[in-house]
Amino acid sequence: MFFLVADSFRNPSEWCRLAYWELAQRVGPLYPVEAPAVNVFGDVPYCDGLSLETLSQQNCNAPESVRHGRCKIGLGVTLSHEGGSVWVYNRSDNPIFVNSLTLDSADSPLPTRVPAEQCLCVYDPKKAAHRTCGWDFTTPFGPVDPNSIRISFAKGWGPCYKRQEITSCPCWLEILLAPCR
């Protein structure tokens, strides 16, 4: 697997940058986030935030699975930075699947299913500090970026799913946390 490295933060007030992916292709530029919360939505505008519909227009030749996946995003998610922790609120009508350092076990970085209209703390700085001590960031599933949270819309991945890697999921979001939390 390959993921972006969040080491080039120029604005100290940014707590993360967002990368939108369709399968193994990043679509559009990185989206910097300074506000404590940000909405990421499909084709239904929900206040301010990142419109994936706007970004997806840059991928005109997307396969049918991606076009179908886009329809399932709807109101998407709200990401909230609260006291160093990161929470995801699933506003979609479909589940999302989340993978991060503080959700995974060291030997099995599987995604956690978050049902529609539910929330989950997807990054806990205390757990992250404990996990990074002596942790090998290379797993049987590929490298793990401790500063990255991955969210797939409506489709899971891993040994229990048809898709083994997140890069096989039609529509997914990568949250690149700022190095200084």
UniProtKB/TrEMBL annotation:
GO cellular component: heteromeric SMAD protein complex
One GO term (biological process): SMAD protein signal transduction
PROSITE patterns in alphabetical order: MH2
Domain MH2: 15-181
A UniProt-annotated Pfam family: MH2
Keyword set, alphabetical order: Transcription, Transcription regulation
Molecular-function GO terms, alphabetical: I-SMAD binding; transcription regulator inhibitor activity
Superkingdom in the source lineage: Eukaryota
Protein name as it appears in the record: MH2 domain-containing protein
Natural source organism: Zophobas morio
